[in-house]
Amino acid sequence: MSLLELTSVSKTYRRRGETVHALDAVSFSAQFGEFICLLGVSGCGKSTLLQILAGLEHADGGEVRMEGEPITECHPEASVVFQEHGLFPWMTVERNVEFNMKARGVGKTERGRVAHDFIDRVGLAGFEQRYPHELSGGMRQRVGIARALTTRPRLLLMDEPFGALDAQTRSVMQSQLLELWQAYRATVVFVTHSVDEAVFLADRIVIMSPRPGRVRSIVPVDLPRPRDRADPRFGQCVGEVLALIHEDLRQLVGA
């Protein structure tokens, strides 16, 4: 059994008096410990789909199951990391990282122990008492990832978490995320606009078509880890995925 199963997931909503068909019959699965990237042009429904997986939105049709059980609300075995890190500005790094555990009733001593472990793992030891406004964008995102992992989720959902970072910081964060993923082996569903990022991170890339979002292709990334962007095979995979994306872009602009 897969950890995650999507079957014919559809979503329509109203925006400014118009009906928007965001998703149409989206189906795919994610295996235990697999890293999936959702990739596609802007407006193809990637973030809407992630919110449905997180239980923050309801699908109009189809079904999402986690270990065979329907996801209809926020799942206790899932954590979400958004592009906007969502840290509480009045809380220190330590308190932010502890937050999910505190919400689940974990005792103070255990919260502190786990929080310090994850703060150290994301390279923020010594910053425990800093506030979000005192941190760089990359550091704030590390806090968000640490907070998401403290409950040892089986499913980690990430909505363009590195999209606002500069190229160098983004590259460092990608490598750090992979180290954490390999250590804890959560199933990851990661939304991105970057083909390079998807090829660097994913076991499989789910390419979505322009609105309404459908699964256009699922591309396995059969490259050894750690991946080397200078490897010709890496460039070949990027080129293959780009070709699929460009087909969709040409259809979108009517070329």
Task: Summarize the main sheet.
Answer: 6 strands, mixed
Class per helix and strand makeup: alpha/beta
Mean pLDDT: 92
Strand residue content: 25-35%
Helix segment tally? 7
Q: Tally of extended strands?
A: 10
Q: Which regions have little confidence, pLDDT < 50, spanning 5+ residues?
A: none
Strand arrangement across the biggest beta sheet: 6-7-8-3-9-10
CA-atom Rg in angstroms: 18 Å
Query: Helix fraction?
Result: 25-40%
Structure write-up:
The protein has 255 residues and is an alpha/beta fold. A six-stranded mixed beta sheet has the order 6-7-8-3-9-10, with helices on both faces. A four-stranded antiparallel beta sheet has the order 2-1-4-5, with helices on one face. β4 (61-66) and β5 (69-70) form a beta hairpin. It has helices at 46-53, 93-103, 108-121, 137-149, 167-184, 195-201, 232-253, and strands at residues 4-15, 18-30, 35-40, 61-66, 69-70, 78-82, 155-159, 187-192, 204-208, 215-220. The mean pLDDT is 92. The protein is built from seven helices and ten strands. Helices cover 36% and strands 26% of the residues. α2 packs across α3, α2 runs parallel beside α4 and α3 (108-121) packs across α4 (137-149).
Summarize the helices and strands and which ones pair or pack.
Elements: E1 4-15, E2 18-30, E3 35-40, H1 46-53, E4 61-66, E5 69-70, E6 78-82, H2 93-103, H3 108-121, H4 137-149, E7 155-159, H5 167-184, E8 187-192, H6 195-201, E9 204-208, E10 215-220, H7 232-253
Helix pairs in contact: 2-3, 2-4, 3-4, 6-7
